[in-house]
Amino acid sequence: MDYSHSQQEVSDLENGYDLLKPSNKEVLSGSRTLQNVSSSIMRKKSDPLLVSSVRFQMLRHLLANLQEVILGTKLAVLFPAIPLAIAADFYKFGRPWLFALSLLGLTPLAERVSFLTEQIAYYTGPTVGGLLNATCGNATELIIALFALYQNKIHVLKYSLLGSILSNLLLVLGTSLLCGGLANLKKEQRYDRKQADVNSLLLLLGLLCHILPLMFRYALGEGPFTFHYTLELSRASSIVMLVAYVAYIFFQLKTHRQLFESQEEGEEEEEEKAVIGFWSAFSWLVGMTVIIALLSEYVVGTIEAASDSWGISVSFISIILLPIVGNAAEHAGSIIFAFKNKLDISLGVALGSATQISMFVVPLCVVVGWIMHVHMDLDFSLLETGSLAFTIIITAFTLQDGTSHYMKGVVLFLCYVVISACFWVHKIPQNQITIGKPFSGVFAA
């Protein structure tokens, strides 16, 4: 009896607790409501702090990007030339000053475009990154060429593209072999010939496409229809060159990637990582490309005035000075790798850039000129084509045995000096350069 009575008391107590539950819930809900109100009040008070924190993080991110992109190169001292060039154009300073400032401003921009392209390649993967490098590696030369084409300055266009090929094969490669040989006198410098052979074959194919229009013009003689047929042959050859370049990209990135990457991967000491984000790199790349386009327009528009003022031929400025500016990044990088006895990378930089100009940029300009109804052909005249032919042949002979020493660099560099001296004295009177007229008529023998 006592036990059942105690059970009844327990059940009564539980029922009483159940009766008290609603009021308890109300108390709990009331406390939660007060907590929510207090937390919302605190959040409203802390909103300015959150906004200021976000702004601080954005400012910190921007400063970090400025540190990497603008101050991350030794050529940063030349960046002030960019606003000075814009100011010189706005206040109508002398055109030679505008040309000089624009040329100085293009030097760090060309190097930074290569850096930003590499940063984007870290996020896009090897295939897309390789395509990006293949198309943007010579962005400065391509933009200058397109502006020259737009302004019908065919002689400047052809000179600048020819000079870029000569600069990469003789100046960049020559100084790299010279410095690498002097820095590694007690070491045998060897490289894989396979990559060099592929680039040499493409350069020889491009040389054939340049020689045929020249030989065709001399075979037919000067006549009313000679230039028309030469132009048609040049356009057909340009299509062949673009097809060959596409095949080369597929060969490099897909079927035989090991020929172009195994040397670098075997020598890398640690894996490199991107230092800025994808969208930051993309935004910087777009902005710098716009500035390069502006400065390129200044350069193309003032090159004749600078030539007259300084007493230097247009051919020398276009073939020697402009390519040195455009190849500043390749030149510095190739020499650094040669000092470290990484000749495969040095050869890839110099030969790859020359191949891109010869097999992609030159025929692309012919096709774009075709669309714009501008008479752009592959007849670079006798002196220019002869210089290109001897340059490619000497480079191919230099790289045929798979070994290197400083004497090879000396020979290539001296070849560049001789060609530079040739175009220093090769002055064409301005009244013989007719803008928009066929280039071959200007340099006809």
From TrEMBL:
**Membrane topology, from the record:** Multi-pass membrane protein
Q: Write the record's keywords in alphabetical order, separated by commas.
A: Antiport, Calcium, Calcium transport, Ion transport, Membrane, Transmembrane, Transmembrane helix, Transport, Vacuole
Give residue ranges for domain Sodium/calcium exchanger membrane region: 97-253, 282-423
> What InterPro entries does UniProt report for this protein, alphabetically?
CaH_exchang, CAX-like, NaCa_Exmemb, NCX_ion-bd_dom_sf
Keyword Coiled coil found? no
Q: Where in the cell is it found?
A: Vacuole membrane
Q: Any keyword Transmembrane?
A: yes
Task: Say which domain of life the source belongs to.
Answer: Eukaryota
Q: Membrane-crossing residues?
A: 69-91, 97-116, 128-150, 162-185, 197-216, 236-253, 274-295, 310-329, 349-372, 378-399, 406-426
Name the predominant localization.
Answer: membrane
Q: What does this protein do?
A: Vacuolar cation/proton exchanger (CAX). Translocates Ca(2+) and other metal ions into vacuoles using the proton gradient formed by H(+)-ATPase and H(+)-pyrophosphatase.
Can you tell me which family this protein belongs to? Answer: Belongs to the Ca(2+):cation antiporter (CaCA) (TC 2.A.19) family. Cation/proton exchanger (CAX) subfamily.
The name this protein carries in UniProt is: Vacuolar cation/proton exchanger
Q: Which organism is it from?
A: Hevea brasiliensis
